[in-house]
Specification:
single chain, 70% helix, elongated, oxidoreductase activity, acting on the CH-CH group of donors, Acyl-CoA_DH_C
């Protein structure tokens, strides 16, 4: 939804110092294309990861530590990229997008709050996963 709101805003917003709508400018068009590609890639990664997590849950088997650690790192990257996409959208929208009554500001606030949860801490999860990849025991609970 954030990307859709950005597209709608581009069609209405006039670039400061010009009479051009943001949607008429090549740079805006390019940024929209990049953001769209990133979002589609992220959605595909999220769906694939969700399928893998669901399969482990439904299998009744215990997911091996190395597999679980790898999934946790991928989930952390998904959350980080989602946050970065929303940040980039707001950067393109200008200062007024940060107004409290703007839904884009709320999306940023929500994703910032979510990404701050300890389960998505990539420093911790990548250290654990790296240790397991090297044949060492994990130093954190998985």
């Amino acid at each position: 939804r954030t990307l859709q709101r950005f597209k709608e805003r581009m069609e209405e917003r006039t670039v400061y110092g010009t009479t051009d709508r943001q949607s008429e400018r090549a740079l805006g068009q390019s940024r929209l294309a990049h953001l769209n590609a990133r979002q589609l890639t992220l959605e595909n990664t999220l769906k694939q990861t969700a399928r893998e997590v669901t399969a482990w849950g439904e299998s009744g088997e215990t997911c091996p530590d190395i597999e679980r650690a790898g999934l946790r790192v991928r989930i952390g990257h998904i959350v980080r990229e989602a946050r970065n996409i929303v940040r980039d959208v707001l950067e393109e929208c200008g200062a007024s997008a940060h107004s409290l009554d703007n839904p884009l500001q709320r999306a940023l606030r929500d994703v910032e709050t979510l990404s701050g949860h300890t389960v998505f801490d990539l420093d911790v999860s990548t250290e654990s996963y790296g240790r397991l990849l090297l044949g060492l025991p994990s130093n954190t609970p998985l």
